[in-house]
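Service request form, structural biology core

Requester: graduate student, group of Dr. S.
Request type: structure prediction, single chain
Budget code: on file
Notes: please return the result as structure tokens.

Sequence provided:
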Amino acid sequence: MAQHPKAEQRRKRRQGRLRPLEIWLPGAMIAMIDELKKDDLSSREAIIAAIVATTLSVRSPEPSEGQPMML
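Core staff response, request fulfilled:
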């Protein structure tokens, strides 16, 4: 498996119940994400996962009558 380190990494992540998600972002947004890196151990993946986890843990506001709910 040493010949295919990416395949091994994907296998381990799937065993850890993770699933891939591909997103396309503007370069400026990627630059903002890169600015959030605190050290060499931070990755875009870790930063995006933290942002999503924080966002999902915040309770969405109740929609007003006649107003569509925003996610």
